[in-house]
Structure formats: C-alpha cells, structure tokens
Amino acid sequence: MKRTVFGIALASIVALSTPSLLGFCGFYVAKADTKLFNKASQVVLVRDGDRTVMTMANDFKGEPKEFAIVIPVPTFLKREQIHVGEKTLVDHLDAYSAPRLVEYFDADPCQVLRREFMQSAAAARPMTAMDAERSAKSRGVTIEAQYTVGEYDILILSAQQSSGLEAWLRENGYRIPNGASEVLSSYLKQNMRFFVARVNLKEQARLGFSYLRPLQVAYESPKFMLPIRLGMVNANGPQDLFVYALTRKGRVETTNYRTAKLPSDMELPVYLKDEGEFSKFYKAMFTRQVENADRRALFLEYAWDMGWCDPCASNPLSNDELRQVGVFWDEGASGRAPAVFLTRLHVRYDSAHFPEDLVFQETADRANFQGRYILRHQWTGQDSCDAANAYRANVRDRREQEVGRLASLTGWNPSDIRKRAGLGENGQPQSEPAWWERLWKK
Predict the structure, then answer these.
(1) I need a labelling partner for 193 at 20 to 30 A (CA). Which of 28, 182, 229, 254 fits?
(2) What is the side-by-side order of every strand in the sheet holding 252-254?
(3) Shortest CA distance to 365 belongs to which of 284, 259, 287, 294?
(4) Using an 8 Å Cβ cutoff, are 28 and 103 in contact?
(5) Nearest Cα to Cα of residue 39 among 306, 261, 240, 251
C-alpha cells in the first residue's frame, strides 16, 4: 500500500521556586529528547528578515518507495533553493536544546560554605515527464519545475482549483484523504505553491543511503509560518511537532496561538534519576500541561544564545554546523561566529484544536530559559551542630514538598510517589528492617 505524507507534521515531521543558590548550574544527568514521543516531527527554521531556510526531518516509517510529501510553500522554489541535509544536524539541535535533568549535592551545614557546581559542560506508477505534464494541464495544474535533488524527485506545482489538484495527485499515486480538498483550496487562495517530493530509489541506491535524509528549502517571503493543516487531514490522533527556530535577534513565538513556558526550575524526588523514570515524568508532565491549556498552546522548552549553555545537555553547534543548517548571516568579521538565538517550541496538535497553520514572529526577548528539573541530594554526614539539626528537619519538609510538586505536575498519586521515593506518609525515609528481622519474618 502506498503511503503519502501530508504537510510538515508527518513529513519531518503552581510551581515552587528554586533557591537562587542553584542558579542555572548543576550536574547534567539526562535529557528529554524527541525520541520519547511517537509521531514526532522536527522542523528547523532559520529566519532573518524575509529570508528562511527550512529543514524538515522525516519521521516516516516504512519502505522508501511508499514515501511522498505534499507541502504548501509561500513562493516558487528554484532547483538551487532545494537541498538535502543531514539528520545529524537536527539530532544535534535536539540534544542541545532538550529539557534536562540536573542534580546538586547539599554541603555540610556545619561548614559555612557555599558550593556551586558547574558543568563544562509513496512512489506512484511510473509516468513519463510528458505524460505527467499533459495530465496536469488537463486538471488545471501547472508543473512549474521538477528537480532531482539527492535521493528525492521534486515537483513544484501550482493549480487553478483544489479539485483539479486533488484529482491530479490521485492520478499520480498520491493517496488523498477525505477532507483534503477544502484545505488545499485555502492554500490556493493564498497563492501558495506545493512542494511535492518522493524518493528516487535508483538515486538512493547509488548514493548508498539506507535512510531518508532531511529536505531543506530556502526562500524569501514576508510569511513566517509553518503549514500543519495538511498533516492533520489523514492523521490518526494528535501529533507532536518540535520547532527549532534560529534567529539573529531573539525568541520566536506564535502570533495566532498562545506560546507558554513549561514549568521549570523545580526540585523533584531524586528517584527520577533511575533508568527510565525521567522519561516517564516528562511525558506525563507535558501531557498534563497540554490538557491544562485546553490543547491550544505551544510550549517553550528552550530559549538560549547558541554561543553557550548551562548546564550543557550537548555542546552548541559549531560554526560549520550552523552554516549547514542554514544560518546565512555573519558579523562582518572573518572567522567570527554569528550571533544565533535558538528557540525550541513543542506542540501537540490535532485539527479540532489547531484549525490554522502556525504563524510566527521574532521578538527582541533574549532572556534565557530551559526546561530544567532538579534533583537535590541531601547531606548524609553525622555532624551534630545546631545547623545540622535544623538542616535535617528542613530536609523532611523539603522531601514532602517534592512529592507534592511531582504529583501536581503529573497527576500521579502522592502515596505512590512517596513509596517510590522511599518515604513514609509523614515524609520520613522508610527504614529497611535489619537483616535478622527479615530472617525471622520469613
């Protein structure tokens, strides 16, 4: 069965404050990258003025011959405006900007020391070009250009009517789900073209790639947007989309939907360091935030100057990697790194809650933000000064607050969290029976 991927989505496609002592430092433990989410698309948008370079990472699973995409674009694309990129660049951006788990260790309260830790951080039935062009004309569709770029055969289409475009796509082996005509029509009214790509199996074999590389397009248009509606026409449930926006000035936000910051910088039970626990937490927390926002918001997961990080989940992209992903400006000095601000947005969407495409704007806000979750290990020394006694009483309260915070973020049962954290109902650590008690209880 042939499979066509529509739009960006499938083609790529009350918090308690933390003490100021903890700052943005800490030892990096783990990250919540896109691999945690099924049906997760990734798009990189490099934007400066009216110029955009867009990289679409495919999440397609299946035989390459079944892959195809149809993407609305705001302008005509020439051959030199289309490129095949490297998935490693998108993976690096994901790793660098992913929400992270960090840990701190309390100092001996009997020593008046402030300790700070830093981390260094669907192929159609073959048609001849003449057949395709003749078929297109009969349907009011114009094949404005056709290219082979890397392992992809690409068409740039315009059309007079959505019905003709839909019919032509069907005739050429693209599976058009019910309801696509209305969406196609809305793009035609905006004078948008359609970027159509599918895999050229011979070229893929010749180049030696066993996976689908990201497609990149560069264009100039005042429209700073991402078309997502076609990707929802044949979608089976909500989809996750990660947008990495690289700009010269500052943070990117949407103008037609709410952009909200995820809860961040809060202390949670230390058992989240155990294998797989942070992933469970992050997925549950994100789902709860989506539901609390009535499923109509995009969430900011990261906003930072690309020149540094604290703590680093991965190193920033190098100057060469920035150029490859599409950063086309410099600072006027040879060898000087360009100023790049990275915004990472995460949205879970469906047609019922996101009836419009995403429209963005660049702001002058350069405030740093990251999804950061803190594990604070208690001091376990035996000193008995007044400060140590007060510290131990404070730890009991702190552990109970961590339980309540985690329950609030995820909706999990506090009793289950206490048990998992090894705490009693009063926040006291549960003591293990002595070896001889366990022996006699058998």
Answers:
(1) 254
(2) 225-226, 358-362, 252-254
(3) 259
(4) no
(5) 240
* Unique residue bearing structure tokens 């022996």: 439
pLDDT value at residue 113: 36
Phi then psi dihedrals of residue 345, to 5 deg: -115, 145
Beta carbons of 345 and 360 less than 8 angstroms apart? no
Q: In 106-148, which residue ranges form alpha helices assigned H by DSSP?
A: 129-138
Residue 375 φ/ψ region, left for φ over 0, alpha for ψ in the -120 to 50 degree band, beta for the rest: beta
Residue with tokens 């029976």: 433
Mean pLDDT of each 10-residue bin along the chain, 442 residues long: 44 31 70 87 96 89 81 93 94 96 88 40 46 75 94 93 87 73 90 92 87 92 92 82 96 97 95 95 97 96 92 91 91 70 97 95 96 92 82 88 96 94 68 50 50
pTM: predicted TM-score of the whole model, two decimal places: 0.83
Pairing between β-strand 252-254 and β-strand 152-159 as defined by DSSP bridges: unpaired
Neighbouring residues of 315: CB distance < 8 A, sequence distance ≥ 6: 96, 121, 309
